[in-house]
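Dear colleague,

Following up on yesterday's call, I've attached the two folding results inline so they're easy to grep. Please treat them as preliminary; we haven't cross-checked anything against experimental data yet. The first protein's sequence and C-alpha cells come first.
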Amino acid sequence: MIRDAYSVALDPLLPWWLIAGLVVVFLTLVGYALLRRARGALLRLLAGAALTAILLNPSLVEEQRAYQKDIAVVLVDRSPSQALGTRSQETNDALVEVRRQLALFPDLEVRVFEGGGGPDAAEKGTELMGVLQRGLADVPLRRLAGVITISDGQVHAYDATSGRETYGGGRYLWDSAKGADLGMNGDALVLDFNYAYHPSCVQDSIWSCPLAPQENWLPVPIDAGERMPESRR
C-alpha cells in the first residue's frame, strides 16, 4: 500500500546565521516602534515576516511512502532431539496451527526460520539463536512484532545436589538456546549439564516452579551448572 505524505522543505537563499541575525535586528526595530506607538509598526512586522519567508525559500514536498507490515517470526527447532518419539509430527502440527492463527492478522508478515539440524549438530548442538540473528539481519527492530519458538524446550532434571548445593526442585536445561544439546547417541539424547540453570522462582517468589518429573530424577550428583550461593545452602 502506497500512502502520500506532505512536508515543507527549506532551501534558504542566505546562510542560516545571516538570516537569524537579520531577524533579530528586525524584531528589535519593530519592538522599539511598538513601544513608541509609531504608525505602521504592524505593517512593518507583516512585511518582515514575508521577507523572512522569502529568504527561507520554503517548498511543499509530496512523498510517497510504502506501508510496511510488522514482522512475526516463527522459530522452529529441527535439532536431533526433535526426532525423538512423536516430536517431529507435533512440531509440524504446531507450525500449521501457529501459521493459521497468525494469518488472522492482516497487518502481520510471518517469517518462518528453521534450524538446529545438519551433519555437525552432534558437535555444535542446536543454534537457534544464531539462526534467528541471521534471519533478522535485515529487519529493523521497530518492525519486529515478536518471536514464537517451537521447540522441545526445557529439560527439567533433579539430581543428588538438589536441595543442598542446588535448588530443591531441580534445574533446567534449555537445549535450543544455550547449546546444551550435544546430539544423539543411538536413541539417547546427550546433554551438557554445564548449561544447567535454576528456574525463576529461585530469584523471586512471585514465580511458581514445577518439580522435575520422576523420570528425570538422577541418583548421582551433577557437579556442573549453576549452584546456589553459600548463604542460601
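Below is the second protein, in the same order (sequence, then structure):
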Amino acid sequence: MLGSEQSSWRLLNSVGIAVTCLALPKSAWHVHPELLRKYLAGLIPSELGEIAFLTHLDLSGNQLRGSIPADLGYLTTLGLLDLSGNQLSGTIPAELEKLTTLYYLNLGGNFLSGAIPPELGNLTNLYILSLRYNQLSGAIPRELGNLTGLGDLNLSNNHLSGSIPPELGNLANIKAVPGPAHGTQFPKPPWFGYLDLSSNRLSGTIPAELRRLTDAAGLVLNCNQLEGAVPLEVLPVIHVWGSLDHNRLTGLPTTYPYWYQTQTVPPTALHATFQDYVDDTRITLTWTPIPYTDHSGFYEISYATAPEGLYTVYDWTMDKSTSSYTFYQPRRGVTYYFRLRTFSTGFDESTDPLAGCSQQSALVSDYSGVVSVNDETPTPTSTATTTETPSNTITPTPSATGALTVTPTSTASETATATSTLTPNPTVTPTVTATPTRTSTPTGTPTPARCWLPLIWR
C-alpha cells in the first residue's frame, strides 16, 4: 500500500482500531465488525475522520463512551455507520449530514441526548435509520420526511414530544422485509419495514398522511400520548405487527379490540340521582368504567354549582374499575353539575414485558360529559340504603415516580354543627412526573365515612 492508502492503514493502527483490508480495492475498505465487537473501550478518536476511502465503520456492541466526534463527517465515502450498543453521550453531530453516501445509520442503545438534528434529512441515500433507546428530546424534525428512500425508521424509547409530522407520510418506501421462517408454522414478524415511534411522549392526533405507508410492516405508535379519533384510512397501515395501544385515542372500531381496550379515555354513561329522605339526602353518580383497567389509575370527580362551572375537584376513586360514587348531605334547592376524567399511571416494559412498551408518564383523559342533578330530580327509590364511600380526606398518591400526585390543600369532613362553613379546594392540580414504574398504586387509605359535599352550608 502506498500514498494515502498506506497512511490510512497506519492511522487505523495508531488509534487501536483493528481493520481488515485484504487485497480489496480501496473503495471496499471497511472496519471488520467481528474484530471490533466487545473489545473496545474509551473515547472514539476524532482521528478516524482522517481515514480515506473508508466505506464501513461498525463499532457496535462495545463500551465506547464520550461524544460522537464531529470529524466523522469527513468520512464522505462511508456507506455504513453503526455505533449502537455503546455508552455514548452528548448530542448527535449535525456534521453527519456530509455523509451523503450513507445508507445505514444506527446510533441506538446509547445515552445520546438533545434534539434530532434536522440536517439528517439531507442523507437522502439512507435506507436504515435507527436512533432507538436513547434520551433524545424535542420534536421529530419534519425534514426526516425528505428521506424518501428510507426502508425502516426507528425512533422508539426516547423522550420525543410534540406531534407526528405529516411529512413522515412521504416515507412510502418503508416496506416489510421478511426474515427466515426457520421451519415454523407461525408467522414471523418482518425484520425491517417499520415506522416505530413507540415509547415516547408524542401528543396530538395521528396524521392522515401516514395512510401512504401501505407496504410497511407496521406503524408502531404505542405508549405515547396521542389523542383524538384515528383516521380510518390509517388503520390498514397499522397491520398485524403495528400497535396503537396505551394512548388516549378514541373512535377505534371494535375490530381492533386490544388497541381499544388500552386507551385512557373518559368514562361513559355518567348519570346522577338525587335521593331525598326525611332525615337524609344523597347524590349517587354512576358510570360505565373504561375497558382499560390494567395498570394503576383512578377517576377524578369534580363538581360545580353553575352550568358554566368553576369546577372543584372533590375526590378520586381507588381504581379504574369503580362504577359509582355517593355524596352525602347535599344541599336542597341547589343544582349540582358533575364531570369525571381518567388517570392512568406510567409503567416500564422491564417490569411489564407483556405491555410491549414503556409508558413514560401518566395519561390523563379529557373530561366526560357533564350531568346535573337537584332535589327535584325524580328519586328512583323511597328506601334509604346504607352506602359507605371513601371520604374526601383521601389523598391519592399513585406514585412518587411514573405518574401523578394529587394533594388537596383542604378536605371536606363531617361536622357536628349545621352552621359550620366548609371550604372546598378549587385548585387541586395533579403533578405528572417523568419516570415510569409499574408498581404505582394509590397509597391513600380509604376511611369509611359519610361524605359532606362542599358548599352545602353557608
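For the second protein, one point worth flagging: Residues 227 and 395 are 28 Å apart (CA to CA).

Best wishes,
A.L.
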